[in-house]
Amino acid sequence: MKKIILFTSMLGLVFLSVFAAAKYKPHVYPPDCVGCADCVVECPKRGKAIALVRGKAVINVEECIGCMKCVSVCSYGAVR
Ligand code: SF4
Ligand code: SF4
């Protein structure tokens, strides 16, 4: 019985972590953004999920699918 409870708990934790990871949407930290637009070009939802506003990248969380491409492409660590 103890093994079943342990297994069920572990399974629950795995599902929770996968769900949490899928839900995460990155954020732009304006002071670190230089407005190079690399993130805008790489975003699969070009122009909808991330765009430059007054020289800084801004993410639209409603459109963002959380793929994290903008995070990986930003050389300045401005998207986290
Ligand atoms: S790639 Fe980074 S520095 Fe360039 S616009 Fe996007 S957030 Fe700003
Ligand atoms: S996480 Fe993906 S979809 Fe969201 S803004 Fe970044 S590149 Fe675009």
DSSP, total strands: 2
Strand arrangement within the widest β-sheet reads 1-2
| Cα shape | elongated
- CATH level-3 fold name: Alpha-Beta Plaits
Residue runs with pLDDT of under 50 for 5 or more positions: none
Bound chemical compounds: iron/sulfur cluster
Mean pLDDT: 85
Give the H and E element order: HHEEH
Tell me the domain tally: 1
- How many helical elements? 3
Distance between the termini: 43 Å
Helix content: 40-55%
Using only CA atoms, what is the Rg?
17 Å
What is the class in the CATH system?
Answer: Alpha Beta
Overall CATH architecture:
2-Layer Sandwich
The biggest beta sheet reads: 2 strands, antiparallel
Structural class: alpha+beta
Strand content: 5-15%
Task: Write out key terms for the chains shown.
80 residues; alpha+beta; Alpha-Beta Plaits; two-stranded antiparallel ribbon; 3 helices; 40% helix; 10% strand; binds iron/sulfur cluster
